[in-house]
Amino acid sequence: MTVGVLAIQGDFAAHAAALARRGVAAVVVRKPADFAGLDALVLPGGESTAMLHGIARDGLEAPLRAYLATGKPVLGTCAGVILLARTVTRPEQRSFGALDVDVERNAYGTQLDSFRTVVDDGGAFADLPAVFIRAPRIVRVGRAVEVLATVRGDPVLVRHGNCWGATFHPELTDDDRVVRAWLAA
């Protein structure tokens, strides 16, 4: 399996390392041709506005939209969820609409308000460590979207088919349950 990691801005190296720990080949995606041959794609955390500028600058919008339309596995973390969301607020921002959720940017506060916790879920992700850094909050979940984990009552890990979103950074902990479950889905 070959997993691409969008490498425009953000923590793409941490995702590549997390995938490597699972024995998965990770390739950085920086140009349109890099989408060829991917079995799955990660949209990492970072700054979503900077990512959108980089996507436009590097001619990645059309190939990214085409990839998202294939139904192949996609995992968006933090800013990646913002890019995948149906609607983005605070402030409004364009997104790709691949995941039927609405998000509010930086809803947990500034960089100084970043925190670590464990998810409230009692299922497969019980006691999963979660790192929140200027994280978005999912404020609406579409009917076909499954909530896999919550924190303080907010959905923080969701999926709709092969499209997964985590408002936290699973790649920043040694617990690889999110990556394992996503790759197995």
How would you portray this structure in words?
The longest helix has 10 residues, at 12-21. Strand 11 and strand 12 (163-166) form a beta hairpin. It is built from 5 helices and 12 strands. The protein has a 7-stranded mixed sheet. The chain has a 3-stranded mixed sheet with strand order 5-6-9. It has a two-stranded antiparallel sheet with strand order 7-8. It is globular and about 40 Å long. The chain starts with a strand and ends with a helix. The chain has a single domain, classed as Class I glutamine amidotransferase (GATase) domain (Rossmann fold, 3-Layer(aba) Sandwich), CATH 3.40.50. It has helices at residues 12-21, 48-57, 61-69, 79-84, 177-184, and strands spanning 2-6, 25-29, 40-43, 74-77, 85-89, 99-104, 115-118, 129-132, 137-141, 146-151, 154-160, 163-166. By secondary structure, the chain is of the alpha/beta class.
Give a quick summary of the entry.
With 185 residues, this protein is an alpha/beta fold.
Number of beta strands: 12
Query: What about the largest sheet?
Result: 7 strands, mixed
Q: CATH homologous superfamily?
A: Class I glutamine amidotransferase (GATase) domain
* Major sheet strand order: 2-1-3-4-12-11-10
Say what oligomer this is.
single chain
Please give the CATH class: Alpha Beta
Domain count = 1
Number of helices: 5
Compute the separation of the termini in Å: 13 Å
Strand content: 25-35%
Write the layout of secondary structure elements.
Elements (H helix, E strand, L loop, with lengths): L1 E5 L5 H10 L3 E5 L10 E4 L4 H10 L3 H9 L4 E4 L1 H6 E5 L9 E6 L10 E4 L10 E4 L4 E5 L4 E6 L2 E7 L2 E4 L10 H8 L1
